[in-house]
Amino acid sequence: MQNLLADVDLTMGLAGERSVRALTKSILMESQ
Questions:
Q1: Burial class (CB in 10 A: 0-12, 13-18, 19+), 8
Q2: What is the pLDDT of residues 10-27, one digit of tens each?
Q3: Residue 13: what are its φ and ψ, rounded to 5°?
Q4: pTM, 2 dp
């Protein structure tokens, strides 16, 4: 999972990092 997130961060770039992490956090919160 961590590797996937790292790839997404690199692909999106610094501009999309915050939105990606916010989205990921919400998804992880819901799955738990």
A1: middle
A2: 776 765 778 888 889 999
A3: 90, 175
A4: 0.42
